[in-house]
Amino acid sequence: MSSYSLRGLNWFNALSDGAKPVEGLPVSLKVADGVLGDQPVRFIAVVADPENRFVRARNGEVGLLEGWGLAKAVDEVIAADQNKAQKRALIAIVDVPSQAYGRREEALGIHQALAGAADSYARARLAGHAVIGLLVGKAMSGAFLAHGYQANRLIALRDPGVMVHAMGKASAARVTLRSVEELEAFAASVPPMAYDIDSYASLGLLWETLSVEQIEQPTSADLARVAECLGQAMGDIAEKGADLSGRLGAANRAASSKVRQLLRAQW
Amino acid sequence: MTDSASLLNKHSFVELGARQRAKALLDAGTFRELLDPFQRIMSPWLSRQGVVPQADDGVVIAKGSLAGLPVVVAAIEGAFQGGSLGEVGGAKIAGALELAAEDNRNGIPTRAVLLLETGGVRLQEANLGLAAIADIHAAIVDLQQYQPVVGVVAGSVGCFGGMSIAAGLCSYLLVTQEARLGLNGPQVIEQEAGLEEYDSRDRPFIWSLTGGEQRFASGLADGYVADDVVQIRQQVGEWLKQGLPAQPRSRQAGLFLQRLARLDAEPQIEPSVVRDLYQGERP
Predict the structure, then answer these.
(1) In 3D, which of A25, A75, A44 has the Cα closest to residue B261?
(2) Considering only Cβ atoms within 10 Å of each terminal Cβ, which end of chain A, N or C, has fewer?
(3) Would you call A116 and B274 a contact, using CB atoms and an 8 Å cutoff?
(4) What whole-number distance in Å separates Cα of residue A43 and Cα of residue A9?
(5) Quick one: B8-181+221-245 is in which CATH superfamily?
(6) What residues have CB less than 8 Å from A183, skipping those under 6 apart?
């Protein structure tokens, strides 16, 4: 068993079977152009590259090359499809343990690389591309902000290994001056602090959650199910538009709506 | 002017709180705060964790004019919970930027200025802070279809986490010597990567890599000024008048990938290597 997750790679390979691989990107990015139903799509995944030139980004973390590489992979689609009636959808397959933590990364502006990725995904959405985040593993913090969180629709597979959070437990405990045990106790009663996907779903940020038989290596039934859901998401985006308003409305995110209403009234 | 006279005339920006900073930047008499602290829109998540909430949740949203142009200012209060963003504070910034973009779609050229003193996501509201920051990123990109978004990192908290990505999205970014800008806070890097990789107590080391002077010298910030209200206001005003930049930094993936390809990533990095790599072509 490897020290890094293979879920992202396995789901990418399954979904992009028959699709055309895109060259000229960092090894840690898997990108391919294919079709889902009758809709052209670009699949994008960040995967582990044990030989990564940047040693702190060898386990699938989103680092300098990954941030800028994602930006490049998305920019290409925006430019190529600019005048097309049917624009490719972007399917971000999300299995990212974290951003890269390292001296080289900070010094060389990893924040700027991640901004590059977020900017490109957001512009793709504004340009009329359906952007869908498919969470098959971890979706952590800055890595998720760069790869997935700008999506029109987020879909998560139901599994204990599918997690969304702002920071790993040990670091979160250190920064908030708590023990890991205290942190876990709060996480159990405060939904936004929890690491599990059901708590995350209660915040209203997911468009759909799906159960599959084999999350590590999807079966053909799993694949069909997820592909169908992606197709429905693309249809929903075509119907309801490109903004992120679909994320608002959950009881556990009521303040986010209330603040917006009051701002509008006082604007 | 003698040194002591110029010191007496200088008004520190860093020493000001978020509300005073917003006031100091806006044209005299134009400051109007939205969702002010008397409306007590507070975090619904902090008290149950034994943390005292604040009446403005640490974020000040103000409309007004700057250099005569319509702006909305979002200022983060570094003194409250390290400037961390929770659900309410994050929604205030995202919502203000969303309305600014909507203004532009309705023919009102509202610009935005972000005063960033923040550690990023407030971990007590973890996933709602992260979601709000994603909304902020989305809204910055949306507004930049029409008008610039200017970021200011003055110090003393600096700008970290998901909000450093927001800083990276800004049309223009202004820093001072007191500023620090980086994705990961020093403590977290030390926790995740070890003391040898990053010593969170070595302040000169941290400033040499992530301080305002270094960021400007590496082209990761557009302006570097003294901690002085007048200079900061003047630079922000110039950029607002200038409009959108021709080459936004966050849209130069090809250039940055080329530069990174030239780097020998084997040895541990020095600040001078970053300056040479990112600014070598500059005369």
Answers:
(1) A25
(2) N
(3) no
(4) 11
(5) 2-enoyl-CoA Hydratase; Chain A, domain 1 (3.90.226.10)
(6) A169, A172, A173, A176, A193
Q: CA–CA separation, A22 vs A41, rounded Å? A: 12
Nearest to A256 among B87, B126, B248 (CB): B87
Residue type, position B207, single letter = W
Pick the residue from chain B with its C-alpha nearest to A261: B95
Residue-wise pLDDT for B177-206, tens only, equals 999 999 999 998 998 999 999 999 999 999
User: What is the complex's ipTM, to 2 decimals?
Assistant: 0.97
Q: CATH class for domain A7-266? A: alpha beta
A250-266 per-position pLDDT tens digit = 999 999 999 999 999 99
User: Distance between CA atoms of A41 and A20, rounded to whole angstroms?
Assistant: 11
Question: Shortest Cα distance from B95 to chain A (angstroms)?
Answer: 5
Give CA–CA dist A207/B12, Å, rounded. Answer: 47
Structure tokens at B103: 């203004």
Q: Which residues of B172-206 are buried (b: 16+ CB within 10 A; e: fewer)?
A: bbbbbbbbbbbbbbbebbbbbbeeebbebeeeeeb
Cα A83 from chain centroid (whole Å): 27
Distance to chain B for A35, nearest Cα, Å: 26
- Domain map of chain A by residue range? 7-266
Tell me the C-alpha distance between B67 and A7, whole Å.
52
A216 three-state secondary structure: coil
Long-range contacts of residues A214-222, Cβ cutoff 8 Å, at least 24 apart: A215/A7, A215/A136, A215/A157, A215/A159, A215/A161, A215/A162, A216/A6, A216/A7, A216/A10, A217/A10, A218/A10, A218/A11, A218/A14, A222/A14
Q: Which of A196, A223, A215, A247 has its CA nearest to residue A91?
A: A223
Q: Which of B160, B228, B250, B278 is nearest to B8 (CA)?
A: B228
Mean pLDDT (whole number) for A224-229: 98
pLDDT digits (tens, 9 = 90+) for B158-168: 999 999 999 99
> Which helix or strand (DSSP H or E) is residue A188 part of?
helix A180-189
